[in-house]
Amino acid sequence: MRLLLSALYAMVLVPPCASADVSYEFLLSNDTGFSINGNEYTRTVTGLATHGVTFDATITVIGFDSSGAASNVSTSSVGLGVSGTGSALIDPGEYLRASVSVTNVSGGTVNFNGFDATSLRNFEAAETAILSLDDQSSTTADNQTLSGASGTDFNITLANPTLIHAISDSGRMRFYSFNASFSAVPEPSGLMLSAMMGGCCAVFRRRRSFTS
C-alpha cells in the first residue's frame, strides 16, 4: 500500500511531458491528395503522429500576380507556379503565400512551429528569388535572397516562419515543397495512467516477493 501511495503521489507531481517535434514535407506537385480552387492550392495530410498524439495538417498556398492581385495557381510534377502572366511558373513580381493549419488533434496538443525548409524546381542560373515574411520583395529585413542557383533541385533551410511569401525577383521558378515543423504535448491523463500502471506493477511484484 505504501508503494502504491508513493506512486500516486509521484504521479500527481509528474510535470507534463516535454514537447516532441516532428517535421513533415508537403509536396506542391500534381500527384494525388491535393486540390486547387482558382488561386488556392491545398493539401491535407491525415494521421500524423508523435508520442501518442495524432493530428491532421493542411498546407494552403495562394497565388498572386505582380500587382498583388489574386492569381490562379498551376501545378505539375515539379511543383507550384502562378498563371498570372501566361507561363505556369512564378514570373518576376509574382509570388506564393504559404501557411499551415492543424485539425483533428487527439491525445494532446499540437503547435505549428513554422517552415524549416523549402525546395525549388525550374530555377535557372543568375535568377533571383526571395523568401519573405511579407509580400514586398523590396524590403530586406526579413528576406532570404536566393541567386546564382541552377538545376532541378535547390533546397533552402528556413528559420521557421509560420507565414512565408515565395517571390520571384528576376527569374522564373516553381516551388516543389515546404517542410513544416510541429511540436506535440501528450495529455497529462496519458502520463497519469502510465504512472498508475507502473505503481500497481511495483506493488504486485512486492506482494509476490512476500508470499514466495
How would you describe the overall organization of this protein?
- With 212 residues, the protein is α+β, with helices and mostly antiparallel strands.
- It starts with a helix and ends with a helix.
- β2 and β3 (40-50) form a beta hairpin.
- The chain is built from two helices and 13 strands.
- It has one domain (20-186).
- α1 (2-13) packs antiparallel against α2.
The helical percent reads 10-25%
Count up the domains: 1
Described by the principal axes of the CA atoms, the overall outline is globular
How confident is the prediction overall: mean pLDDT? 80
How widely separated are the two ends? 18 Å
Strand order of the largest sheet: 2-3-4-7-12-9-10
Structure class: alpha+beta
Radius of gyration: 24 Å
Low-pLDDT residue spans: 3-16, 200-212
Write a compact overview of the structure shown.
The protein is of the alpha+beta class and 212 residues long.
Entry keywords:
212 residues; globular; 13 strands; 7-stranded antiparallel beta sheet; 2 helices; alpha+beta; disordered N terminus; 4-stranded antiparallel beta sheet
Topology, please?
Elements: H1 2-13, E1 20-27, E2 34-37, E3 40-50, E4 53-64, E5 73-76, E6 79-82, E7 95-106, E8 108-121, E9 128-132, E10 144-147, E11 154-157, E12 164-168, E13 174-186, H2 188-211
Antiparallel strand pairs: 1-13, 2-3, 3-4, 4-7, 5-6, 7-12, 8-11, 8-13, 9-10, 9-12
Helix pairs in contact: 1-2
